[in-house]
């Protein structure tokens, strides 16, 4: 699920991060490797990232994209809260931000809540499922020029 936004023809740094409540790490390692395969330079902030740290790192690094992953079931609440904090900063108002993973605890029905995350400021939402990663890869090739040969 994707919100319309301007084309971003640059690569640069991508921040991969979990959210404050989430201790899972292999999802982040997976995303880091996937993004590196696509030619991005990744800064992986790891698990249980406090909102303030995520905001500070984004302001400091001015990433081309922020990729948030959560699988513990609190992703909708945590994501809604944190994207508001990120978008409130003028420097991050137009930064590309996506979120994905096991965002809730209701399985397929959680997909219905993706609209709330888009309304709150994410550019795209990738709820868990067999299509999530292929859709994310299509999204990457759609909005960024491939930087790896
Ligand atoms: C290992 C594990 C743990 C370990 C984590 C250790 C570590 N260092 O990571 C420990 C024991 C700490 C743990 C704790 C908990 N866990 Co746990 N855990 C797992 C487990 C078994 C495997 C997760 C894993 O590593 N997968 C491998 C990675 C590579 O895959 P992934 O996480 O699924 O990510 C994939 C997709 O989700 C997707 N994806 C993820 N993010 C993004 C982002 C984008 C943008 C895109 C495109 C795709 C994407 O791509 C990834 C690759 O396919 C899963 C069950 C399972 N089999 O998945 C439960 C699971 C994630 N845990 C769960 C739960 C509930 C918990 C606890 C709350 C349990 C408890 N009561 O304490 C705590 C939460 C702790 C916390 N504060 O977060 C639930 C979440 C339920 C939900 N969301 O519906 C699961 C699904 C188990 C279950 N079936 O109930 N857990």
Automatic annotation (TrEMBL):
GO terms for molecular function: cobalamin binding; metal ion binding. This is Methylaspartate mutase. Pfam families: B12-binding. It comes from the Bacteria. Residues 11-147 form the B12-binding domain. It comes from Streptomyces lydicus.
